[in-house]
Every structure is written in C-alpha cells, then in structure tokens.
Design a protein that fits this description.
The protein is an alpha/beta fold. It is 38% helix and 17% strand. The chain contains eleven helices and eight strands. The strands form two sheets. Strands 1, 2, 3, 4, 5 and 6 form a six-stranded mixed β-sheet that branches. A two-stranded antiparallel sheet has the order 7-8. Strand 3 and strand 4 form a beta hairpin. Helix 2 crosses helix 3 and helix 4 packs antiparallel against helix 5 (101-115). The two termini are 46 Å apart.
C-alpha cells in the first residue's frame, strides 16, 4: 500500500486491486441501526409518514441531533409560504373579523410580506391571490361548523408499544363540529395532497391518524366524537378540495381508515424498536417528493441513481 499518503497513489492502488479492493458486501449506502433504547418515543403524524418514506432522515434528526440550516438570502420557501397562508386563514376566523374574499387577500399579503415575500412578487401574484381567496370563501360557505370551529388544534395519544411508551402527536389545521356532533378534520396544503392510493397503501397516514386522535378525544378542547370526513384543501393557484375515502382508488370511512392506521402505527414503531432494524435512506425513492435534508449526508450520489437535487417524483 502507498506509504507517503499521496491521494493519487491511493487511487491508483485501489484501481490496481480492482474488485478485491473492498469487501464483497461493501456498500456506500448507510445502514445505521444504533439508537437509544426504546426509541422512537414520540413522533408527529407527519413524521410517521417520513419514517416510512425516508427512515434515515428521521434517524439523522433524532439520533444524531442534526437539522438542516436554511441558506441565507434564499427565496421564500414552501414551508415559510405555507406558514404564512395558514396564519392568514386562522386570522380570518377570529371573532369579529371581516369574512370576505377582499379581507382574505389583505391577510394573505400581510402574512406573506412578513414571511419575506418581495413586494414585486406580491404584486405579480395579486390576481392569483384574489382567485384563491374567492374560491376559498365559496368553499367555506359550504361547510357545517355550527357546533364549533377549532383551528390549529394540537392533540396527542399515548400508547404502549413493544413494552415501552410512545406518544403520537398532531396539529389539525381546522376541525369542524357539525350540528349532529360529528367532526370533520381539514388539512390545508399549498401543494398537492397525498393521493388516495398513497393513503390506501399506508404511505400517507397523516389524516387517518388525525381521525384516530379525534375519535379518542386527543385534541385539546375537542371532545371525542365520530369523524364524518377527512378533507384536503389545496390552497394554490388552482385551488381544490378533496374528501379522503370517496374516490375510485379508496372507498372507506374515516373510522375504517383510523382502525387501519392504528394497526399500522403499532407495527411500524414496534419494528423500528427491534435491535436489528436499519434506518435506510429513502428505500422507496419513487414515493419521496423532495430531499428531506439528508441526502448528501447519506451520500446518495455515490450509490443511488435517483438524486442530484433531491428525492424522486410522486
């Protein structure tokens, strides 16, 4: 082997040895297994979905304690834009606030401006915001919240899984109580929501798990009740709404989805608490919509053919 430490000599040496330079079972793909005893102990419904799609990202965040640092002077990202839109919709529902499309446009502009949206971008998007606001007020007028409306409501459920406690958490964007006491759980998206196929296969369990929390009275200040519907609202240039479980790819009630989601949750957490469980980097890359922040740490460019910028398509 080279003794002077010259990197080029090392490369020539490895090439000369060919396939025998590394163990036959060698792979640049990370396969971490070590983590604290009894982990994971607490996860949100959205992180449950990430655990299924990109376990390595969850391991890097929670076991290594790493987090992605946002680039300085970067354009307003989807996360900041989504937070601003959520805040505008929440403010619209405050007691005594004007409920009109014009007022919603003003709130959207105010919150996007505070989030860092440039004035020229706001001016260019004015017509889009007006279309979104008009559509939303029409959708809002069809909703039954006569029994009460709760926004940004947090909730938890406690479990004992494989001999250790586990806490499931969630924040519901909008919970409507109908006149008959049943609930509707609404989730706002600034992009495309998960498809019914993804929910049916178990890869997107955010809404079914929120139904489970609602049915068991886990949301603060929201008594346990049957869930009548789970609704996605896509708040974007071409806004739309969809009720989960009513399309051709999935026909199931919220109660049925909640039962399946609970069983899947118990299996998932129990499996990842086994000592030999491996936290792989996006093992099903076709179901990862974007880089969760750890593709470079996982060195995906060395061993996978799916990344230059991020994950795969969905």
């Amino acid at each position: 082997a080279p003794e002077d430490g010259n990197p080029l000599d090392w490369v020539r040496h490895l090439r000369a040895r060919g396939r025998n330079a590394l163990p036959q079972d060698y792979s640049a793909e990370p396969r971490p297994t070590q983590r604290p005893e009894g982990w994971p102990k607490r996860m949100s419904v959205t992180r449950i979905d990430t655990l299924q799609r990109d376990p390595y990202a969850i391991w890097a965040e929670n076991v290594l304690g790493l987090s992605e640092v946002e680039a300085m002077n970067a354009d307003l990202g989807a996360r900041q834009r989504g937070t601003a839109i959520h805040k505008a919709l929440e403010t619209l529902e405050e007691e005594g606030a004007e409920k009109s499309a014009g007022r919603l446009v003003e709130l959207l502009q105010e919150n996007l401006r505070m989030a860092g949206e440039p004035e020229d971008a706001l001016a260019a998007r004015r017509a889009i915001l007006e279309r979104m606001a008009g559509w939303y007020m029409q959708w809002r007028g069809t909703r039954d919240a006569s029994g009460g409306l709760m926004l940004e409501r947090s909730g938890t459920l406690e479990f004992d899984i494989a001999g250790a406690p586990f806490t499931l958490s969630a924040t519901a964007d909008r919970i409507e109580r109908h006149a008959d006491g049943a609930l509707s759980v609404v989730d706002f998206k600034t992009g495309n929501p998960p498809s019914d196929k993804e929910i049916k296969t178990g890869l997107s369990q955010q809404m079914p798990l929120q139904a489970l929390i609602a049915e068991k009275g886990g949301f603060k200040g929201v008594g346990a009740a049957a869930v009548a519907s789970l609704d996605y609202v896509s708040f974007k240039a071409s806004p739309s709404a969809r009720t989960v479980g009513t399309g051709r790819d999935l026909r199931a009630s919220p109660a049925e989805l909640a039962v399946e989601a609970e069983a899947g949750l118990l299996r998932l957490i129990a499996a990842y608490r086994e000592n030999e469980s491996t936290f792989l980097s996006a093992p099903r890359v076709q179901f990862v919509k974007y880089d969760n922040g750890f593709n470079r740490l996982a060195r995906r460019a060395e061993w996978a053919g799916d990344t230059e910028e991020g994950g795969g398509d969905d």
